[in-house]
Amino acid sequence: MQNVAVIVGSLRRDSINRKFAESIGKLASDRLNFSFVQIGDLPLYNDDLWQSPPDAVLRMKNEVEAADAVLFVTPEYNRTYSPAIKNAIDWGTRPWGKNSWAGKPAAIIGASPGAIGAAVAQNELKGLVTVCGMALLGQPEVYFTYKPELFDGTNEVADDNTKAFLNTFIDGFAAWIAKTK
Questions:
Q1: Residue 42 gets which letter from DSSP?
Q2: What are phi and psi of 107, to 5 degrees?
Q3: Residue 136: beta bridge partners?
């Protein structure tokens, strides 16, 4: 089974993107093993900190490097991805020559209560992810309008159409990881 480091860009306790990612992880559990990488404890990127790297940075880099692939789950903040994701990506690309993201198969998804499902944020993030050397899944895309009634009390996908849609993404991502790993 392929191990996926999941980076959720919302740090909020009741984040719909965290709930969404957890739901997909449950749905994918027969194909992919999701490991949620903590990024809320990372200090703001500062190159001076490499003299004595923060433990949170080293932990994040190790978790990403140990994974077979990376899944970014981004909210949309002011028509772009969250600063938490940018900060994690910046830490992961350093120090020079030790880019934890390089060569990793990756995918980007996101959810919002609005109709476009974090589409703008995802499209903004695509450029950064490819610049960092990740092999980005182009299709299928998931711009998800989050509605609580699509999930049950245990955060499992309850709606059959939603389940079919998300399984298409999961199958595509699993195939992408196998092809590019």
A1: P
A2: -140, 155
A3: 106
Report the predicted TM-score, pTM, of the whole model to 2 decimal places: 0.96
Tens-digit pLDDT profile for residues 22-66: 999 999 999 999 999 999 999 999 999 999 999 999 999 999 999
- Residue 2: CB atoms within 10 A of its CB come to 16
DSSP assignments along 50-70, one per residue: GGS--HHHHHHHHHHHHSSEE
Three-state DSSP class for 103?
A: coil
Task: For residue 97, give the DSSP letter.
Answer: T
**Residue 176 in tokens:** 């992408």
Does the CA dihedral 13-17-23-28 come out positive or negative? negative
CA 151, 124, 11, 137 torsion-angle sign: positive
**Count of H-run helices and E-run strands, the chain:** 5, 6
Q: Which amino acid is at 173?
A: F
130 by DSSP, 3-state: which?
helix
Q: Which two tokens stand for residue 133?
A: 């050397």
- pLDDT, one tens digit per residue, over 122-174 is 999 999 999 999 999 999 999 999 999 999 989 899 999 999 999 999 999 99
